[in-house]
Amino acid sequence: MGGPSCRSARNALRRSASRTATTSPRGSLPPERGGSGGALMGAAMARKAGAVGSSSPRRGLALGSGRGACVGASVLEVRGLTYRPASAEKPLLNGVNFDLSPGRIGLIYGPSGSGKSTLLNVLAGFSTSYDGEVTLLPSKALGNGNGNGRGKTGTPRDVGVVFQFPERYFVGNTIMEELSFGWRHSSRVEARSEFVKRLVPVLKVTGLSDMPLDRKLTQLSGGYQRRVAIAVQLLRKPSVLLLDEPTAGMDMPSIEALCCTLESVKETSAVLVVSHDTDMLQGIADDVWEMKTGGILTRT
Ligand SMILES: Nc1ncnc2c1ncn2[C@@H]1O[C@H](COP(=O)(O)OP(=O)(O)OP(=O)(O)O)[C@@H](O)[C@H]1O
Ligand SMILES: [Mg+2]
């Protein structure tokens, strides 16, 4: 996979190759063999986040910028986000503040257990009992032609989520079954034609254009399974695409392909990645924050 916007991904790969070639176990993996450790969550859980054809049981995010919103405003604003589930003795997120603008890739890195995935869960709407404000721009306000945005507020329907281990959540047997799942089961009659309209550009962005759509998901490498998981989300045209540890367990060519994909994705959806891996991802990130132990986020 390549494309016009892959230059910084390739440069980042070159910069990091010398640092990691002799030290990283990724270097010994065959191309596109991501392995289960780096796989991303697929359709099923993401559909809980409000995919086409489903009804989300979760409360919406706090606010949206509404009709007056436009490209240039933050697509995601987080203010004073503190989160302590009943099962935790201390807050897992501690006064988190950050903004993400359209057309940008944000990277949050930090040590294991610092709260990165917890933050993603809150942003995706899976955890709702938090203090502070999470403000999401509706997809419609980005002018990307999305029909998800309803009214003036952004909701979890405007968020795409790709967690780890997609093969655990795939619901189809083939690529096409996976991509079309929510659309096929939609009660909206326009859904099928809308799906067809969106499919070709999404396949292009995710590097799946040349892949037979009747290919079984189990026959795909970890890297290609991630592409399918991302494509499922992009079909929904989210305002923000959230990815948890997208490079874990991947070899360098697969990471480069992923970075190219994300650079294309950001043209229509802002991207927020949480990861241990700063080698490659910092090369394509427009904004970088560090999550410190205790759920404290600082801009770097
Ligand atoms: N529901 C919960 N109740 C209590 N503690 C929790 C809960 N969920 C997560 N934790 C704890 O919160 C901390 C942050 O977890 P989280 O999974 O967000 O970290 P992370 O930064 O994503 O780590 P990793 O890099 O290993 O994925 C951990 O110590 C975890 O054990
Ligand atoms: Mg995590």
Automatic annotation (TrEMBL):
Domain of life (superkingdom): Eukaryota
Keyword terms of this UniProt record: ATP-binding, Nucleotide-binding, Transport
First and last residue of the signal peptide: none
Cellular component GO terms held in the UniProt record: chloroplast envelope; membrane
InterPro entries assigned: AAA+_ATPase, ABC_transporter-like_ATP-bd, ABC_transpr_CbiO/EcfA_su, ECF_ABC_transporter_ATP-bd, P-loop_NTPase
KW ATP-binding (keyword) present: yes
Biased composition (Low complexity): 1-11, 18-27
Gene3D superfamilies named in the record: P-loop containing nucleotide triphosphate hydrolases
Classification via PROSITE patterns: ABC_TRANSPORTER_2 (PS50893)
Residues annotated as domain ABC transporter: 76-300
Region (Disordered): 1-40
SUPFAM superfamilies in UniProt: P-loop containing nucleoside triphosphate hydrolases
One Gene Ontology molecular-function label: ATP binding
SMART domains tied to this protein: AAA
Name of the protein in question: ABC transporter
Origin species: Chloropicon primus
